[in-house]
Amino acid sequence: MARAKKRQQRDDEPRRPRARRAPIIELNDVTKVYPGGHMALDRVSLAIGRGEFVFLVGPTGCGKSTLIKMLIRELDATEGQVKIAGRDIGALSEKKIPQLRRNIGTVFQDFKLLPNRTVYDNVAYALQVIGASRAEIREQVPATLRLVGLSTKLNSYPDQLSGGEQQRVSVARAFVNHPPLLLADEPSGNLDPVTSIGIMQLLYRINKTGTTVVVVTHDREMVDNMRRRVVELYEGRVVRDEVSGGYTEESTGEFGLRMQAGMGIGSEGEARTNGHDHEHLV
Amino acid sequence: MGRLIFFIQEAARAMRRNAAPSLAAIVTTAVTVILLGVLIPIFQTAQAKSDEVRGQLNVQYALFGDATQAETAALGNELRGIPHVAKVVYVTKAQALKTLSGELKDKSIVSELKTNPLPNSFEVFADDAGNLPGIREAVYPNGPKGEPFNPIIANEFDRQHSAQKIEQVTSALKIVLTVITALLIIASLMLIGNTIRLSIYTRRREVEVMRLVGATRWFIRWPFMLEGVVVGFAGGLAAILILWLGKITIVDPLSETFHFLEAQNDASVNFPELMVVLFAAAVIVSTLGSGLTLRRFLKV
What we know:
B: Alpha-Beta Plaits, about 75% helix
């Protein structure tokens, strides 16, 4: 009963005129300063529309993970606004945070599976949390596991699976209740290139169903191949934001150079920056 | 209802998959309850015994056999007039003999007596054990070797000296037992707390994952608390069984021989009552312990 109400709430959301127009993720001058004084994000503004597939790239320590953690309110912004579907999540009470997280699927480098549960139960847990009925669970879980290609391993435990398989379980869990937004923090960080491609294809397929997908990655080749929007962070600032489709061989090369050095070198070409010039980097 | 079943299943699963920490928690709880189940009766018995001895603290004055009834009555009033005297009881020689024969195991000693050698006496009770010396001084103004304030008093019974010693010993015993019991209670609570914390700590990543997929605090907490209930229940039950076995095999047979243990049985300690209290305490401590320990891992 409670679940029906929650479902209702979520389904209602896009129908509200304000929410319909609002981007699914909107950051307005978001700054994050850690207690030690380290500035992880510096006045970041960013908008990601519904249904987009976005890569978030940048060297270690550039603030990517901080950004992801803010989107699920594991961290609070020091300044600025983080909006999900038009709602300022900084204003959410602690009680509402689980609600927010149910609408955001998350995939992590270390899979974060529950070691004491089978593949089936791991995926089912995400539905149990939102109060799904047994019938729903029995229907959704196998279907989602089929989607990720693990229908034969329902009763295996995470430690009996390969890294790639574990990550598929993690993706299945993130997607099983069809959230409007899916965040993947280095999903292929622990995987070999072939397996990584499989995971990316999976994320791409999920994106095709209408779910917005944000992928944090170091994998340059992946970004090159997928040709999707790329947002690059450097020292807490957005230094590049290339829209989908406008991602050419040239810019890939440039991206590669910059990834290698961990900073901007040479001409910037057509890379669209977000208020910050590359002079900052040199 | 479906939720409750789910939580119970979750708790059962967790205990199955983390058998070692769960068992450790059960054993710790059982040991603590046994400890308390043994110590509390001992403590209460000592308390009761010491109170009993305290209540017995009195001075007894033997009277000369030739004292007249009027003289005796006058002395009684005089004794009552001494400050801090709570009660004065006249004990006839016949009564004294009866009491003595009741205290002696071998009754034949009394029956063999041709005459009653015991004197009539006054038992003087103080309102507090500490005031007894003052009363004795009032009766013997010139010290124990001097003349009593009333000539019909023959002598002072020796009994209060030993009574005072018992009083000292029991109050010391009481303090020691209080300290030991308090320390043990603190230690066992910390032990239980630590065991629970350990078993939860090994699962903190699990809790982290649960939070990530949007589980509410109580959704995460319920299975842990149910686990606490089961641990407390199992530990408490095991302890009570052991205590009960100990009572019927060791304490009960011995209490027929030893007066001290008998006092334990009919004193303030009620065994079933104590067991119920300890059992409830085990379940509550274990449940709340689980719930509270989890709090730090539930911080967003």
